[in-house]
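Thread title: Can someone regenerate the structure for this chain?

I was given the following input by a collaborator and told the matching structure tokens would be attached. They weren't. Posting the sequence so someone can regenerate them.
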Amino acid sequence: MLTRTRTLVAPAHLVRTESPIGRLEIGSDGEAVTYLAIERQGALPWQELPENPVPVLDTAVEQLGEYFAGARRSFDVPVRLVGTPFQLSIWQALQELPFGGYTSYGALGLLTGRATAGRAVGGAVGSNPVPLLVPCHRVLASNNRITGYSGGNGIPTKRWLLSHEGIEAA
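Best answer:
Regenerated them for you:
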């Protein structure tokens, strides 16, 4: 489900789990995943808060574990995204990218009717509140180069995810 308002408050429900790219912190409103962070320099954004699991978070942890084990190629856990109409259009397009597939920032701009909005597309991709579940790591520069990644430890994290999916980047 995609909505238009944005909140910067702590998630109502929160769990943490280990992964090959670092600890993951996953948040929910009780019905859908609303937040996912990848550990950066040993820290998570809400690490001072206690865990407060709900079934949707248990499902997310299970599906992410299967993804990292190579047994899952898509996610069907409910996700609720909050952002501007432009961000929502970019995140919707990202959700349609299959495991092992990729696109470019320029192609996303064309797809959403803003062919010259490369910087805005990059900003929307980088502000994705649920990386991995909404696969922003599958976006490369037009020359197949990795130009950045806002999750985890940046480019090394993105390179690991791309390699895990068999995507070769320059």
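The first helix runs from residue 55 to 68.
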